[in-house]
TrEMBL record:
Keywords: Cell membrane, Membrane, Transmembrane, Transmembrane helix. The keyword Nucleotide-binding does not apply. It comes from Enterococcus hermanniensis. This is Arylsulfatase. One of its GO terms (cellular component) is plasma membrane. It is a multi-pass membrane protein. Its main location: membrane. The keyword Membrane applies. Residues 249-532 form the Sulfatase N-terminal domain. The chain crosses the membrane at residues 12-33, 53-72, 79-100, 120-144, 156-174. The lineage of its organism: Bacteria, Bacillati, Bacillota, Bacilli, Lactobacillales. It is found in: Cell membrane.
Length: 601
């Protein structure tokens, strides 16, 4: 009995308390990943994937050790650690519900996007988020100030622990590097699913999926990559410049937030009219159809990246989840439609009726070469519709018209709208639409949103018709809204949840009325071909690829009028696909040999 009493119980209780905290926090992450199903979370942790669960606990323990040593207090460090876990876990739960995808490391950079967070989660949750943030800052300042009073011995122990845990965290950060021991430990039992991040997190746990998405090269080096190979490709697709002065029409890109056709979804029947009536009156008379979006419920910046650069998200490593935040800022310049047109004498303007920091757009647009970026603070037209918190499409289009009317030189205008962004409830007093099969207030309000958007687009194109200069418009929806029930999502699993509407418009009405399925990275090449604008060599390569693969993303390939989960390429088609892969690698990860060959000019 005396021996038991002599045991260092206070230290033992601390160790047990820390171990419990780490295990519970990892379980909390699993709960947010599994829609708070305790059965699934416990089976994952203690039955199906125990090894991976405790590897995740090890990483959390290292992070916990770093926090407590940095703050100089076990007690305050534990509280701060809990705040971080709760914040990340709740964010993961909400993102899974809204967008069917988990939180990625790159998402943590958005923590200071206060206006975006408020708009997405609503005011009550936003206040809670601010409260947690304020408490966290207070604890940080209070603890660091208090830590100055630690004894010399305590400071040395704190410093040693901080150095060790910092080194371990840096090593953990290299999870995707060759021979990383933590990655090797995961690989013994982990089944990585790069084509589906949702399943990847399910199969390896929240921590495993999170680690998998840490920093990594944009692409793996393709076979036969060399300067000679790139030169051969550029020579193959490079075209002679026209001897006569080429046509320089105005070009307007419009990426419409969440614009899609709900009536295309199986199991749904819209009552109260057609929200896309005005859109169809235009689309039926011009080149239009469906565009394949990478994600359901989100991923706006990725679709924008594809449309402006001509590069496909499908070719990237699966961990390259958001090029706007993870890739483009690393470059001083990056070849895109913007730089191509700017080199041809165009004035280039980006318009986004929201803040400039979302997805690092201010930095990205500067890298692409936009001459100016108009946002909610610099736009002249900022009217909204009823209780909608976002600037209306009609206002955004008026901003475009101002630019077209006041400038003499050819214009490239890129508009990213916000009117139809979530949340959708309580925006409008009168919503005439009902939906059999998924009749929620979100779906009803969304239909009213796209109806207003459809009307604004038609009015805008009518104004475009009055311009004396030839003006071309490319309009598309970036993704479906993440508002449909599980039953609706299951009934439309696959490409149906990824197809939005698109159209090309010419105010001289010289386009065909062909209907097709495409991907956004083909837009510029397709537009240049149809309007007889001088193409770049890269666009010639894209057109050649489009003939074989009209649309594709991970797990979705459109060939010969059918959808497949994997591409079915013959030898000639495989060669063309590989050429495209080599060029994308060359620009994003390689030595950029193709720039020396003026392949994008």
């Amino acid at each position: 009995m005396q021996k038991i009493k002599r045991l260092p119980w206070s230290q033992i209780l601390i160790v047990l308390g820390v171990a419990t905290l780490i295990i519970v926090s990892n379980l909390f992450f699993q709960l947010t990943q599994n829609n708070f199903s305790f059965e699934l979370a416990f089976k994952f942790a203690f039955s199906w994937h125990t090894e991976k669960f405790f590897l995740g606990c090890l990483v959390l323990l290292i992070f916990y050790g770093w926090l407590t040593s940095f703050l100089g207090s076990l007690k305050i460090g534990s509280i701060f650690y809990l705040l971080v876990i709760i914040g990340v876990g709740v964010a993961n739960f909400m993102k899974m519900n809204y967008r069917m995808e988990p939180i990625y490391p790159s998402d943590l950079k958005m923590v200071t996007e206060f206006s975006m967070i408020k708009d997405i989660v609503g005011f009550p949750l936003f206040l809670l988020f601010l409260l947690l943030l304020i408490v966290g800052v207070f604890l940080l300042v209070f603890s660091l100030k208090k830590s100055l009073k630690l004894t010399k011995q305590q400071q040395w122990i704190r410093f040693a622990l901080l150095v060790v845990t910092s080194g371990l965290l840096i090593y953990v950060g290299g999870f995707n590097q060759p021979n990383n021991l933590l990655r090797k430990a995961y690989n013994k039992t982990a089944l990585w699913i790069p084509y589906s991040q949702k399943m990847n997190y399910y199969n390896t746990g929240f921590m495993g999926g999170f680690l998998y998405n840490l920093s990594v090269d944009a692409m793996d080096k393709p076979a036969n990559y060399s300067e000679a190979t790139i030169k051969k490709i550029t020579e193959k697709y490079q075209v002679k410049k026209k001897e006569t002065s080429e046509d320089q029409p105005n070009i307007v890109y419009v990426m419409s937030e969440s614009f899609s056709d709900t009536s295309r979804l199986k199991g749904l029947d819209i009552l109260g009219g057609d929200p896309l009536k005005e859109y169809r009156t235009v689309a039926n008379k011009t080149y239009s159809g469906q565009m394949l979006s990478q994600n359901y419920g989100g991923g706006t910046a990725n679709i924008e990246f594809e449309a402006l650069t001509g590069f496909s998200m499908e070719l990237f490593n699966s961990q390259m989840t958001t090029p706007y935040t993870m890739l483009v800022p690393e470059f001083k310049t990056f070849p895109s439609l913007v730089s191509t047109l700017k080199n041809r004498g165009y004035q280039t303007t980006a318009i986004h009726p929201y803040n400039t920091s979302m997805y690092k757009r201010k930095d990205v647009y500067q890298t692409f070469g936009f001459d100016q970026f108009l946002n909610e603070d610099t736009m002249k037209h900022t009217a909204k519709i009823e209780n909608n918190p976002y600037i209306s499409d009609a206002s955004a289009y008026q901003e475009v018209m101002d630019q077209l009317e006041k400038n003499k030189q050819p214009q490239f205008l890129h508009l990213v709208t916000m009117q139809t962004h979530m949340p959708y409830e309580n925006k409008y007093a009168d919503v005439p639409y009902l939906v059999k099969g998924d009749d929620t207030s979100s779906v009803q309000s969304y239909l009213q949103d796209v109806a207003y958007s459809s009307e604004a687009l038609k009015d805008f194109l009518t104004e475009i018709d009055q311009l004396p200069e030839r003006t071309l418009v490319v309009f598309w929806g970036d993704h479906l809204p993440g508002i449909y029930s599980d039953a609706t999502q299951e009934a439309n699993e696959g490409h149906q949840l990824h197809e939005t509407e698109f159209l090309f418009y010419d105010n001289q009405h010289q386009l065909s009325d062909e209907k097709t399925v495409t991907s956004p990275f083909y837009f510029a090449a397709d537009l240049f071909q149809q309007t007889d604008i001088q193409p770049t060599g890269f666009q010639q390569l894209l057109l050649a690829l489009q003939e074989e693969l009209p649309a594709f993303e991970k797990g979705m390939y459109y060939q010969d009028g059918q959808w497949f989960k994997e591409a079915r390429l013959n030898q000639a088609q495989e060669e063309r696909y590989h050429e495209y892969q080599l060029i994308q690698y060359d620009i994003t990860t390689g030595e950029q040999y193709s720039l020396k060959e003026n392949f994008f000019d």
